[in-house]
Every structure is written in C-alpha cells, then in structure tokens.
Hints:
This protein has helices at 17-48, 69-75, 78-81, 94-102, 113-121, 166-177, 195-200, 213-219, 243-248, 250-269, 271-282, 286-294, 301-307, 317-330, 340-343, 347-355; strands spanning 57-61, 86-90, 108-112, 126-135, 140-143, 157-160, 186-189, 206-209, 223-227, 236-242, 296-297. A six-stranded mixed β-sheet has the order 2-1-3-10-4-11, sandwiched between helices. Strands 7-6-8-5-9 form a five-stranded mixed β-sheet, with helices on both faces. By secondary structure, the chain is an alpha/beta fold. The relative contact order is 0.15. The protein has 16 helices and eleven strands. The protein has two domains: 57-135 and 235-355, D-Maltodextrin-Binding Protein, domain 2 (3-Layer(aba) Sandwich), CATH 3.40.190; 140-230, D-Maltodextrin-Binding Protein, domain 2 (3-Layer(aba) Sandwich), CATH 3.40.190.10.
Amino acid sequence: MHASVTIATLPQKEPSYREIWILKRLIKLLVIPCLVAVMALWLLHSLNQPLQQSSPLRIAINPWPGFADAFVAAEKGLFTKNGVTVQLVMQSEQRLSNRTYKDGDSDGLFAPLSDVIVLATQGVLSKTVYVVDYSQSGDVIVARPGVTSLADLKGGSISIDSVHSFSHIYVLRALQSHGVDENEVRFEIITAPRVLTALEQGLIDAGHTWQPTSSRAIAKGYHIISKAGDFPGIITDVLSFTAQTVADRPKDVAAVVKSLLEARIYVEQHREEAVAIMAKATGMSEQEVSDGLSEIIRPDLRGNLTAFSRFKSTLSLYQSGSYITDFLLDRGFVRHVPRIDDLVDPKIINTLSSDRPS
C-alpha cells in the first residue's frame, strides 16, 4: 500500500476593519517617518561631499614655441580660472605626440593641420578649434656649404621629419617651387632634432628642421635655403580634439581655447617672465624660445576668426586644408580624406568673438 499524504489548507480569515485601520496607522507612524529620515541622511551626506570634477582634458604637446602658451596658461592658473582641468602630455617630438593622440592616450593634440588631416585618414576624426600659429621662419630647410638653393639639391639628399607629414608636404612644395621633381632627390627620414648631427656626419645635403636645431645649425656654419613663410599657411599649427571630446565636453574645450587666448595676451604683456616659463617647460634656452616666437605668427581672437572664415588664401583653414588634401590625394599618399568641413569647427571661436565686449 502506498501512504497517502493530505495537504490541509486552513480557511483564510478576512481581516477586520479594525485590523486594517491599525495597519494603516502603523505605516503612517513608523514606516513613513523612517523613509523620510533615510532620505534626509542621504541628502545631508551628499551635500557634505565635494563636487565631483570631470576628468582632466589630456592634450599632447611637444617643444615648439608656438605651443608653449599652454605652459603659461597652466603656470598662471588660467585653465583653473576658466573652470577646466588640463593635463599637458609632454612628448619630445611631434610624431610622438601624434602617436599619443592616435593611441587614445590624449583627448587633444597640438599639431600642424596637415598631421590632423593625415590622422583623420587613419580613422582619428578630429575637430580643429584653434589656430596656434603660422610658421614663417620657424620651419626651415638648412643646407651644407656649397648648396646655395633648392635647385642645387638635384641628385642630392634632403631629410624630412616623417613620411606623409607636414614636413613631407612642406619640403615637396619647396622643391617644386624651384623646379626640382621629387624623383630627382633622395629623401631621408631624420627627425628635426637630429638634422644637425646628420649634416655634420655628411648623411644629407639639407634637411627640414626648426628651433632649437635651426639656430644651432646656423651657429655651426650651415645656412637656410628655404623657410615656410615662402608658402603662407603651408604649415599652420592648430589645436584639435577628438570629435567625441568636442561633442561630450564642449564647455571644457571652449575653456581651453579661452585660456590659450588669455595666455597669448599674457605673453605679449610679460614677455620675459613668459619666455622663462616656456623655456623651463620645453627644455629650450630662453634665447631659443624668444627666437622661435619671433619666427611665427600667433593669431589673436580676431586672427582666429579670420582663419575660420572662407576666403581665397591659405591663411584660411578651409583653403589650406583643401590644398593639403589635394596634395595628399594627387601623390597617392592616401585614397580618401574626410571633408575639411568635418574637421574644422568654428563654433567656439565664433562664440568667443561674439561674447567679446565691443
């Protein structure tokens, strides 16, 4: 026989009106006050906590006098005054700054516009928000004795900082202006700080470089046969941020630009102090920094407003950007480049200009 199991269900008793009334009173007297107390304690705790700050905006930078306003902005507390925390990620060379940015280890980048465009072809979409400087005699081609012009380089050798870079574009443009085809010279990849050593070792006949190497080369008897100013706007240095950073943190990016414009004014008004700050941060001598500043055009707010306008001059980002993209495409350096309109963001400069007291 199998044992049978019976589950008994007790009849449920309906609560009386009085029991329901007592339960409601208990909720009012005990539960609700407890909830109010818990919420009050949470609010009090929240008010006593410091405001959570956004993570620092990381900007890749390297020793170039045009970029050095950023060090002044940091030293004089201008970033803090304008409500943004900035971390300047220092690298020794432009290509290393570019790599830092490409690898996602910085949110922004000080670089020539051409490098920003090349990075965009590699999938790093940026928004250029500020023109730092136009190189005049800051970027030069230095040659050994006996080479008196670019035309003398036919059959010779010249160095560029890296392939498909602003250096490559500038040197090709300079050679072209003197009737020298790129197939008539031998190119060597030598970074700007090493150009003097390469000249001394006889590895090259000429090379593209800038401060402090250019001054040191001249002091040792080498001479300049070309400067960027011969081709206005060919080397336009800018500040760019990733498109995502500009979309997510527009106020912080605007605060950085405002701080740099204020730093530029400070440099003009306190030249000696500012040069000392720049020299300490970059490892250059004060004389090298001072010379470097005199070799570039550093546009103010009005100059930036012009740069972000459309007109037929390579001082316009749209015009110089189009020249660079055509140059890259024509020589097969890249197969596709983004539209310049997608890389240039004039909103911050336009807003700062409209907010300026008349």
